[in-house]
Amino acid sequence: MPGGNPVDELDEIVHVSRILGADPALVLHGGGNTSIKGRVQDVTGESVEVLFVKGSGWDLASIERQGFAPLRRSRLAELLKVSALTDTQMMNELRQASLDSSAPDASVESLLHAMLPARVVLHSHADALVAVMNQPNGRSSVDELFGDRVIVVPYVMPGFDLARMVAELWPKLSTARTEGMVLMNHGLFTFGETAEEAYSRHIEFIEMATQRANFETSPATEQSAEGTQEAGDEEDGSVAFAKFRAQASHLAGHPLIVRQDTSLVARAFAAREDVSELSQQGPATPDHVIRTKRLPLIGRDLTAYAAQYGTYFTENSSRREQELKQLDQVPRVVLDPKWGLVTLGGSSGEVSIAADIYRHTIDIIEAAERQAGYQALPAGDIFDVEYWELEQAKLRRGGASKAFQGEVALVTGAASGIGRACAEALLNKGAAVIGLDLSDSVEATFDNPNWLGIQADVSDAAQLTAAIDHGVRRFGGIDIAVPAAGIFAKSAPISAREDNAWLRSFEVNATAVARLFGLLHPYLAMAPRGGRVVLIATKNVAAPGPGASAYSASKAAAAQLARVAALEWAPDGIRVNLVHPDAVFDTALWTPELVAQRAAKYGVTEQEYKRRNLLGLEIMSADVGKAVAELCSSTFRATTGANVPIDGGNERVI
């Protein structure tokens, strides 16, 4: 195991967990788990044998000390003697066995870790081994490959029943040579007295499986490519893609994020003549069903998929004793020869996870096909995990989602000032945001999976069209638009007006907005909750100042355009409103020198100048951003064509 001198049990298990979790071919998005056994002193001074096991919700790649739940081993041993427990009861008992009430819920496989006698236990769902197991001759291949160095356990759903089965099999099957355990169609456990020993065994077994399966991992650079079709292509373009997203959102009952991957790997698999056979076998390992559903949709017929899913639910719901709440009938993975791999979910994070899992699934399927053929578990076994009582309990508990969860916003001028503040406010309310800006800094303005920053000149028709297409391919559509990009020409009286400055002001402040509106209308009209536009106008529309003719006139033109859009687009359910900021001093327009100059002109201090409004407030970009986000919310569902000042009260406007 590479480097490091662990100080105690937790340091040791954190170190090896991060190494194991850093390889996506071993562990994906919260999968896998690890544990270490040790002793701690409780508050009474008693020395207690403890199992430190990975906590629910933690990712092995980034886990920290507090990510492990400390469980009393004596209590776990008692639980293993119980003849039957529901998984809900088991999780309750694990919580009571914890020495730390603030620790996360322990892994559902904690009892399995507890009964294994080794000090360190590592568990992964390695792609190469899954490819070996998911074949008609998977069991015999595993036996032949590892011999008596591992014990092999037939597939049983994770939880109490699996732990009890292994506890019964262990005395019968384990020997002095036992170094690991294979759970069929699930994953690999290795153990040792040190983390280094358990890890070296793990890697050795995975390498053996890799050679056996002739396993190949698709190049990461190809996996991350995105759509490049022409936006105007009626059948396969971005408008058609957004229409698909609108249909899926309607079926789900809430807005969805939809992402396209047209990498060579994705498109080649989606275009295979036997894709309908291979992809309909089921997931590579049962726990993937929570992220991807059991089967992907082949093509684009969402209605047929929903009917098929309904049949699947009806045929299998009797497997569970409790009444089940049917999940939505929307696919999480779509395979289409033109679109490649498409993933759907309630957030950008969900679609990214589904895409990652299915890319690995493609590698697994193709590796298995090079051998005896890919064969997943029967539908009933997958159903049991998809409708696991623990997952159903989460649904019953529910939980409030953010206001714009699953929705997509486009903000221009998003790298700084008011545009950035609007983007931040929308991100904070759960929206995925496409941010456009002339500055390349827009790409890294926010470190958030819901953020897509694109460098583009909004006055360039080709760049604007390409940016919108890119954003739609990333998130699925556009529900909210906030045109915030603008320029303020150098102040000059009308008599000294320069044509270039005048024309450039109209090009950016008015014509670019008109073009943006025309390009966005098809997407806004398909928005699941209705399209919303908030134009960042200005106080100058109502109360222009001397020397600002180019800015005032061009912004007034844009304001009139927004009012016309409010009239024209109301039948499409699109709301168009305007905000009119004034004297927002945390923007690039207001340099310290300019503030000092203006304050001196009026004979006041700089702070007094910044608060020259009726309410005596200093107006910030965040004030504008919050107002814009609120105008896009359901609070203003009955408002369109409104003009909202954000200026602290301006006498000339009032």
From TrEMBL:
Q: What positions does the domain Class II aldolase/adducin N-terminal occupy?
A: 12-213
Region Disordered, annotated ranges: 215-235
One Pfam annotation reads Aldolase_II
Compositional bias, Polar residues, is annotated for 215-227
Keyword annotations: Oxidoreductase
Q: Does the keyword Oxidoreductase feature in the UniProt annotation?
A: yes
Name the SUPFAM superfamilies on file: AraD/HMP-PK domain-like, NAD(P)-binding Rossmann-fold domains
Record carries keyword Thylakoid: no
**What is an example of a GO molecular function annotated in this UniProt entry?**
oxidoreductase activity
Q: Which family does it belong to?
A: Belongs to the short-chain dehydrogenases/reductases (SDR) family.
Task: Kindly provide the name given to this protein in its UniProt entry.
Answer: Rhamnose utilization protein RhaD (Predicted bifunctional aldolase and dehydrogenase)/NAD(P)-dependent dehydrogenase (Short-subunit alcohol dehydrogenase family)
